[in-house]
Amino acid sequence: MKHRKGFTLNELMVVILIIGILTAVAVPLMRGRIDSAKWSEARTAAGTIKTAVRSLVTTMDPNYTDYAIIEDSLGNGLLALLLGFTNTSLEGSYFNQADYTISDVNGVDGTCVITVNSTHPKGPSGVGIQAADGSWLVITDGVAVDGVAVDGDAADPNGGADGGRRRVWWWWR
């Protein structure tokens, strides 16, 4: 009797089916992790910017109240220099210095809101926001990363519906 070596057609089809199922499940999971890793670059830079703003506010005259000079995009070279950044200090793999915008500077405690919108060709889609309380949120197509639906106005995460201030809590996973 001859002993044949090899796989049957059924065995090969089952292996191909299993690989196809694993690929269909793994690719979306990995894609989400890649975007999350890209956003970590923005989150780190936003923390550095907040520290620079806090430092600048504490060195200013206590009677100074017009913080509009600080509320701008870091693409503005004068603002970057004022905060102690060079023209390329915040250039990263997925975000450019002009992608970071400072708003809602509070002169009492030096807090602010940093909005990040990637214009880099390899950057992730969506908008990242580091709120005044330090929480981080990424919004893609009107939905936060953690699945919480948000309003279309992502410019001020601390603004209430009545125009007043409110506190926002977003938990990072």
Concise description?
With 173 residues, the protein is α+β, with helices and mostly antiparallel strands. It is 33% helix and 12% strand.
Topology, please?
Elements (H helix, E strand, L loop, with lengths): L8 H51 L17 H6 L17 E4 L9 E5 L9 E4 L5 E5 L2 E2 L29
Antiparallel strand pairs: 1-2, 2-3, 3-4, 4-5
Description:
This protein has two helices and five strands. The chain is an alpha+beta fold and 173 residues long. The chain has one domain (9-144): Glycoprotein, Type 4 Pilin, CATH 3.30.700. It has a five-stranded antiparallel β-sheet, with helices on one face. The N and C termini lie far apart (62 Å).
Order of adjacent strands in the largest pleated sheet: 1-2-3-4-5
The main pleated sheet reads as: 5 strands, antiparallel
What sequence of helices (H) and strands (E) makes up the elements?
HHEEEEE
Q: Kindly report the average pLDDT value.
A: 79
Percentage of β-strand residues: 5-15%
Q: Could you give the count of β-strands?
A: 5
Radius of gyration: 23 Å
- Overall outline: elongated
**CATH C-level:** Alpha Beta
Characteristics of this structure?
alpha+beta; Glycoprotein, Type 4 Pilin; five-stranded antiparallel sheet; 5 strands; 173 residues
